[in-house]
Design brief:
Elements (H helix, E strand, L loop, with lengths): L5 E3 L5 E3 L11 H4 L2 H7 L3 H7 L3 E3 L6 E3 L2 H6 L3 H8 L3 H15 L6 H7 L5 H13 L3 E4 L6 E4 L11
Antiparallel strand pairs: 1-2, 3-4, 5-6
Length: about 160
């Protein structure tokens, strides 16, 4: 399905979408026609400033998503929310909930990666490191024998997996 011929951005300017097509992915990069990728990809940061697309992620390789208002226009607000994903704090809370449910048995890294399948193992490790720094999680043991628990570090030298 083709997008509307123009989109009203935050600054009131109409932005033409002649080379984009609507797909179920909702991610601008993945729905670009090959010929459009060369034209639009360098412009995505500016389009994000204008409100024509939304930037997700701040570090390497940010993703760009069509704006919520466009999804609302076509009656797909839920799709927008799913494509946008969960924020960092929500992901941490999901990990903590799993650690609390695991109780005294703790949870190996493999289980924690299953809690957030959309994230890579290093991304889950980063979230766990942040929880540890906040005193909300602790690791005991090392490597494959390591387990994560809810609560503050008993010893600051525990490495975890």
């Amino acid at each position: 399905m083709a997008l509307a011929s123009a989109f009203q951005c935050r600054e009131g300017q109409a932005i033409e979408w002649p080379l984009l097509r609507w797909s179920h992915s909702g991610n601008v990069d993945s729905e670009m026609r090959p010929e459009a990728a060369k034209v639009f990809r360098p412009s995505l940061p500016r389009l994000a400033e204008l409100g024509a697309v939304e930037k997700i992620g701040k570090r390497r390789g940010p993703r760009y998503l069509l704006p919520r208002s466009l999804y609302a226009e076509i009656g797909k607000k839920g799709t927008y929310t799913r494509k946008r994903g969960l924020d960092c704090e929500t992901n941490k809370e999901l990990l903590l909930r799993h650690l609390r449910d695991a109780g005294a048995e703790g949870s190996p890294m493999g289980e924690l990666v299953q809690v957030l399948p959309q994230l890579s193992r290093p991304q889950v490790k980063t979230l766990l490191a942040e929880l540890r720094a906040e005193g909300r999680a602790r690791a005991e043991g090392e490597r494959s024998l390591g387990r994560w628990f809810a609560g503050a570090d008993a010893s600051l030298d525990g490495k975890g997996s």
